[in-house]
């Protein structure tokens, strides 16, 4: 087996084939770095940061439109709960009637009624899940309008006041009170978006049309 002979410093000398490749590669690397230096030196320096802060969660919580959305969602949730409770009450009554008829019906007739009851119970369960998804979807769509408005207001205010960096106040350990735009943003959002109508679910629209 051919072994590499250690050099004077104790490390192994590279084979001639590797030394032949390394020379041009090193020259190419140096050339790339040297060519890059003038571009880096000529690059425009970044502007200094002009910072403001906003309590985004407070705006999203206290804005008139956000409060309106929550009130509408709570009213709809209560309506859905009443609807589900009534359907569950009917299911309980049907189950009791089915138990009473068990000894009066033939096995085939009882099995048919039992199957119909189970299908109805499954339908009610699907409705519960559908109502939950409808509330989640309506909430997301309505609050997206508020979030977009907050971003627009903050962007316009930053342009007007010369800020190029706006941070959530919850992410900043210490800042001067004069950098806090929360009150101004909240007032501007309320003026621009005093209310948001929560979109109706398709099933509700179909119920109204009938």
Record the SSE blueprint.
Blueprint: H1 16-42, E1 51-54, H2 56-62, H3 64-101, H4 107-161, E2 165-168, H5 182-192, H6 202-209
Parallel strand pairs: 1-2
Question: What's the quick description here?
Answer:
The chain has 210 residues and is mainly α. It has one domain.
Walkthrough of the structure:
The structure is a single chain. By secondary structure, the protein is mainly alpha-helical. The protein has one domain (51-203). It contains six helices and two strands. A two-stranded parallel ribbon has the order 1-2. The protein is rod-shaped and about 90 Å long.
Poorly predicted regions: 1-40, 206-210
Q: Major sheet: order of its strands?
A: 1-2
Radius of gyration (Å): 35 Å
Largest sheet: 2 strands, parallel
Provide tags for this entry.
210 residues, mainly alpha, two-stranded parallel ribbon, 2 strands, 70% helix, disordered N terminus, disordered C terminus
């Amino acid at each position: 087996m051919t072994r590499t002979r250690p050099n004077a410093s104790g490390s192994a000398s590279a084979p001639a084939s590797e030394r032949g490749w390394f020379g041009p590669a090193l020259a190419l690397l140096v050339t790339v770095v040297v060519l890059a230096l003038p571009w880096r030196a000529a690059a425009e320096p970044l502007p200094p940061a002009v910072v403001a802060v906003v309590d985004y969660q407070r705006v999203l919580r206290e804005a008139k439109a956000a409060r309106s959305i929550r009130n509408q969602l709570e009213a709809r949730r209560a309506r859905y709960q009443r609807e589900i409770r009534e359907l569950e009450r009917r299911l309980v009554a049907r189950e009791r009637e089915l138990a009473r008829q068990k000894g009066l019906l033939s096995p085939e007739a009882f099995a048919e009624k039992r199957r119909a009851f189970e299908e109805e119970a499954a339908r009610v369960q699907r409705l519960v899940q559908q109502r939950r998804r409808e509330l989640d979807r309506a909430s997301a769509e309505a609050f997206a309008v508020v979030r977009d408005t907050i971003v627009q207001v903050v962007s316009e205010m930053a342009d007007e006041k010369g800020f190029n960096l706006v941070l959530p106040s919850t992410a900043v350990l210490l800042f001067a009170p004069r950098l806090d735009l929360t009150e101004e943003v909240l007032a501007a959002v309320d003026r621009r978006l005093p209310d948001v109508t929560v979109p109706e679910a398709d099933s509700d629209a179909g119920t109204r049309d009938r």
